[in-house]
Amino acid sequence: RAYNFNAGPAALPLEVLRQAQEEFVDYKGAGMSIMEMSHRSKAFEGVNDNTERLVRELLGVPDGYSVMLLQGGASTQFAMVPMNLLADGKTAAYVNSGSWAKKAIKEAKLIGETRVVASSEDARFTRMPDLAAVELPDNAAYLHLTSNETIEGTQLASFPNTGAVPLIADMSSDIMSRPLDIPSFGMIYAGAQKNLGPSGVTLVIVRDDLLEASRPGVPTMLRYDTHAKSKSLYNTPPSFAVYMVGLVLEWIRDKGGLEGIDRLNREKTGLIYSAIDGSGGFYRGVAESGSRSLMNVTFRLTSEELEKKFIQESEQAGFVGLKGHRDVGGLRASTYNAVPLESCQALAEFMAEFQRQNG
Ligand code: PLP
């Protein structure tokens, strides 16, 4: 298997792929694959329930929150959040932390009154904005933030207390990577294709009182209450992706849950950040130290030429996906949950060797 550092779709656990392969043609004696099954069948309902139950168990989602598995990616959530939750006369507050936050803000502006209450744009998004003393408008509908900026490689180490104002987080690139206190959020959403499974399904967790506040006039498919009431089976779901997410969540549970995964993730990125910090300036981390992501390690070399050479030689050595996002350049190693420790060890060794030859 390749050393897969892709940013998304990203690596899946080998054990999960093997189990899916085993069940692919004949799911538990049904005589057909999950993909060929009615989504109204008992067997698929079992799969759907299992995935939801594991989300609740691993994240500690209390009663009073709905868990939904939707389509349209996190990008559709950028629009659905304000469509449902930004009532007339209210202001949506946003944290501008980077490329993905900007996309969320752009959609909110299409829907209603939107205000950026904290930004790190002046630091070229090399850190997360300081949210300790963030001030919200009196009529704030919610505060939206991005917990991990996938492109810049920054991550929030902690979350602000927003009191009665619902806190909404795009956790697409760090969901299920560390323990979370769900009751401090009004809503969380995440595309599956980094830490949860294949693309095609989006996890949405919403506090029930917010569902009830849905704006009138929102089309049926774009309303949270539609999907909450029908347990994500209002229309045909992305059934194979929902099944795969269930297998990935079982794998996370068997790794010691979110505490176990968090420990492993710290060990993994620790190897790469150490290679950067110990290089005497040959490698330079992009994110400021307090904002460094445990999911996307972004770094530079001393010239773009050397970066090109690094990418070329890394590909020859079996590494995939180390090129930085086209908007920012440089290098990026995405070390999501399913990336094995051995891949990160191999990368740290490759980095040291590349420095020996080019430093
Ligand atoms: N938000 C973040 C933080 C992301 O990293 C991404 C995708 O990379 C998205 C949103 C968009 O997700 P999707 O492609 O599922 O719409």
Report on this structure.
- The protein has helices at 14-23, 42-59, 73-85, 99-111, 208-212, 224-229, 239-254, 257-277, 304-316, 341-358; strands at 3-4, 65-70, 91-96, 114-119, 140-146, 148-149, 154-155, 167-170, 187-191, 202-207, 284-285, 296-300, 319-320, 331-334.
- With 359 residues, the chain is α/β, with parallel strands linked by helices.
- Strand 6 and strand 7 form a beta hairpin.
- The mean pLDDT is 97.
- Bound molecules: pyridoxal-5'-phosphate.
- Pyridoxal-5'-phosphate binds at residues 8, 73-75, 100, 146, 150, 170, 172-173, 191.
What would the average pLDDT be, to the nearest integer? Answer: 97
Counted up, domains total 2
Assigned CATH superfamily of the largest domain: Type I PLP-dependent aspartate aminotransferase-like (Major domain)
- Class by SSE composition: alpha/beta
Strand fraction band?
A: 15-25%
The distinct bound ligands, ions and cofactors come out as:
pyridoxal-5'-phosphate
Number of strands: 14
InterPro entries: Aminotrans_V_dom (IPR000192), Aminotrans_V_PyrdxlP_BS (IPR020578), Pser_aminoTfrase (IPR022278), PyrdxlP-dep_Trfase (IPR015424), PyrdxlP-dep_Trfase_major (IPR015421), PyrdxlP-dep_Trfase_small (IPR015422)
GO biological process, one term: L-serine biosynthetic process
Organism: Paenibacillus albicereus
Cofactor: pyridoxal 5'-phosphate
